[in-house]
Amino acid sequence: MSIFMENYEKWLSANALSKEEKAELEAIRENETEIALRFSSGLSFGTAGLRGTMKTGMNAMNRHTVAHATQGLANLIRKENCAERGVAVAYDSRNNSALFAKTAASVLAANRIRVYLFDGLRPTPELSFALRELNCVAGINITASHNPKEYNGYKAYWEDGAQLPPEHADTVSAEIRSLDIFRDVKTTDLDEAIQNGLVTMIGEDMDEKYLQQVLAQAVNPEAVKKVADELKIVYSPLHGAGHKLVPEVMRRIGLKHLYTVDEQMVIDGNFPTVKKPNPEYPDVFTLGIALANRVGSDLIVATDPDADRVGVMARKSDGTFTTITGNQMGALLIDYIITAYRETDTMPKNPYAVKSIVTSELAGKICAANGIKMHNVLTGFKFIGEVIKNYEKSGDGSFLFGFEESYGYLKGTYARDKDAVVASMLICEMTAYYRAKGMTLSEALSALFEKYGFCYETNVEIYMEGLEGPAKMAALMDRLRKNPPTQFGNEPVTLVGDYLTGIITENGKTSPTGLPKSNVLYYRMQCGDVIVARPSGTEPKIKFYYMLEAEDLDTAKKKCAAYQETLNAIANA
After folding, report:
1. CB-based burial of residue 186 (10 Å sphere; 0-12 exposed, 13-18 middle, 19+ buried)?
2. For residue 542, how far is the Cα from the chain centroid?
3. What pTM was estimated for this model as a whole?
4. What is the mean pLDDT of residues 50-62?
5. Quick one: how far is CA 49 from the chain centroid?
6. pLDDT tens figures, 105-140
7. Residue 177 scores a pLDDT above 70
8. Dist. CA 212–CA 218, nearest whole Å
9. pLDDT digits over 343-380, tens only?
10. What DSSP assignment string belongs to 226-253?
11. b (16+ CB within 10 A) / e for 22-36
12. Where are the beta strands (DSSP E) in 386-527?
């Protein structure tokens, strides 16, 4: 009998399964492919935690795999002798998120580890803030961020408020592998744990403390009030956790005319109004655009289900709406923050900013022109958090702003993860600033390009799903690594960065990347254009990031198409 069939039969016979779960497994008995997908291996636990579709089985998100992972985390905490410090647990609006959060809390309590459990859905950044505020040793957030409705996930955080460092993730992963998913996982009744004081519910008091920290990040608190009578903004939480705190913080900074997309203010893990609850996609703004046209708003803001990412569409001079990408918004915000601090003479000492290596160089140009130190790190907000932590240890430097191209931003050190609540506030403030100058955000972006040069960034994703998906992804990265392209289109490659080996090769000379090892390949052309290849850590795909400079959009798109032809040839070889 194959290993996946052995695992399948083991689950079917487990007393821990409910009648409904057993019926679900019985229904796939004749589907060997589906059984293999669910039972060939378990979900991989890494620095990003767990993520997968919600099904019964080892390679899926369900109450058993959540409990299994939590027992692994509990074992790490016990080894670190930090049980008394406790763990903060939060969740978003996805189906089963509340169940999974309560499951995790019951496992921690059974291991005599103190738990602080939110009484309802909350933004991911509030979890990061809360665990720091409560001096917890760790945190758990149940969310799959912007993935489709079939997914859920499990993000684990450590005491600094960032996601688990690699060494701790490795320990948890090893513990999970050593534990039998049914026999070795401790559980207790949650209500009893609450009565016994092992689990403490947290709610509005923590919201208020968090909001005060967010409000403290305003660069020019009077900006919105100056144009409050005329400024109109449309907001949607996309059925998620931003539904309460994002409107609240906008109102507190003085916004009088906030219009919410009522259909998307409904908390619903099926995300009925969108195909994917991802603010990177223009189609999630359809209802928002209709509302903006009715009320006369020039800006629509949308946050993803766990409110750590924010997307924006802005009205153009012709009256239509256009997406402001994550790269463009990051550049706009860093430029605005610098400008506002300079105009109010409040620039902090030794300011620095942080971005990922797959993020536009436009922000780097802006910082260089203003004497601001810019740090480049690997993808993942935990690496931005590490830079902040290192500066705090040294006692030198003021964190100005951090962001990734994937619509994640942070100002302030109260949290160590991207925060759509503070970003929404700053976007509102920045919009008001330009409104006072008679400009829309679209016009502000055009002015930025005129000053620093036109930049074009886009992503191309190659999906490799199914049982053979991981092997195909590995094979393509291997081909790119062993035989690096010498040119893309007609442009020669002058620099290759292999972040797995930790080596940069430029014009025949090698040097260290200076960053942790990661399966990322970086190519820079003679003209300055950059292409980065990175397998996703949460989905079966390889992402190719294009960061190009050109005279205009048409020229950039032609260059991008030529570069993609080269990559397609390699991918199909």
Report:
1. middle
2. 17
3. 0.94
4. 97
5. 12
6. 999 999 999 999 999 999 999 999 999 999 999 999
7. yes
8. 11
9. 989 999 999 999 999 999 899 999 999 999 999 999 88
10. HTTTT-EEEEE-TTSGGGTHHHHHHHHT
11. eeebeebeeeeebbb
12. 398-404, 408-410, 455-463, 487-488, 491-498, 503-506, 509-512, 521-525
Which two tokens mark 418? 């991207």
pLDDT (tens digit per residue) in 300-320: 999 999 999 999 999 998 999
What's the rounded Cα separation, in Å, for the pair 458 and 461? 10
- Please list, residue by residue across 543-566, b when 16 or more beta carbons sit within 10 angstroms of its beta carbon and e when fewer do: bbbbbbbbeeeeebeebbeebbeb
The tens digit of pLDDT for each residue in 497-520 reads: 999 999 999 988 999 999 988 999
> DSSP characters for 290-347?
HHHHHHT-SEEEEE-TTSS-EEEEEE-TTS-EEEE-HHHHHHHHHHHHHHHHHHTT-P
Q: Give the confidence band of 268 by pLDDT, cuts at 50, 70, 90.
A: very high
| Mean pLDDT, rounded, of the chain | 95
Give kind and range of the element (H or E) at residue 155.
Answer: strand 151-158
Residues 6+ apart with CB under 8 A from 169: 45, 46, 47, 156
What is the pLDDT, as a whole number, of residue 507?
Answer: 83
At 558 the pLDDT is 93
- The answer to whether 116 and 89 have CB atoms below 8 angstroms apart is yes
Cα 429 to chain centroid distance, Å, stands at: 23
**Chain CA centroid to CA 225, Å:** 31
The residues annotated as belonging to the active site are 145
Cβ–Cβ < 8 Å for 399, 324? no
Q: How many C-beta atoms surround the C-beta of residue 229 within 10 A?
A: 8
Q: Locate tokens 């930790």: which residue? A: 502
Strand arrangement, sheet containing 310-315:
257-260, 232-236, 299-303, 310-315, 321-324
Give the separation between CA 523 and CA 374, rounded to whole angstroms. 20
Give the angle subtended at the CA of 240 by the CAs of 239 and 243, to the nearest 5°: 90
Number of residues written out for the chain: 573
Q: Is the Cβ–Cβ distance between 109 and 188 less than 8 Å?
A: yes
Spatial distance between the Cα atoms of 5 and 225, rounded to a whole number of angstroms: 64
Distance separating alpha carbons of residues 392 and 401, to the nearest angstrom: 15
How far are the Cα atoms of 40, 510, 532, 542 from residue 504, in angstroms, in the given order?
A: 37, 5, 13, 21
Residue found by looking up tokens 């058993």 in the block: 64
508 to each of 47, 398, 496, how far by Cα in Å?
A: 34, 37, 10
For 442-482, the pLDDT digits (tens) are 999 999 999 999 999 998 888 887 777 788 888 889 999 98
Tell me whether residue 15 is exposed, middle or buried, using C-beta atoms within 10 angstroms of its C-beta: 0 to 12, 13 to 18, 19 or more.
Answer: exposed
Instruction: Write the CA distances from 487 to 361, 527, 562, integer angstroms.
Output: 21, 11, 11
Res 79 pLDDT > 70: yes
